[in-house]
Amino acid sequence: MQAIRWDESMSTGVDSLDSQHKQLIAWLNDLLEAMSLGRGRAEIDSLLNQLGGYAALHFDNEEACFEKYKCPYAAQNIEAHKHFVATFQALRDEFDRDGTSSHLVVRVESELMRWLGGHIKRTDTHLKPCVRPD
Question: What is the pTM (predicted TM-score) of this model?
């Protein structure tokens, strides 16, 4: 299991978004650890609820920042968020149906963890040069 660690290469230039990224990373790391250790269904369900709800809130905030600062990657960012939401929902449905399985743990690591780390570095960081002081 490979945890994600936030570092300065993930900075968007917007402190509130960077703080939200740190929280998303922490909860995703917690989710993967709980699943890998076979923790109870209720704990994993709670983590999934936290992560899913917070991701939706964060995506709305981030998309507003991309629009506010007229970042040329805004449309790409929205599409990437839609992909994450669809992937997350599929994993959520699998958990609701089958509980935690080794297959689901691998999917969370390969699809969600890699997506989040890659998305922040490849898309969200394009916001930084667009940010201007208010």
Answer: 0.90
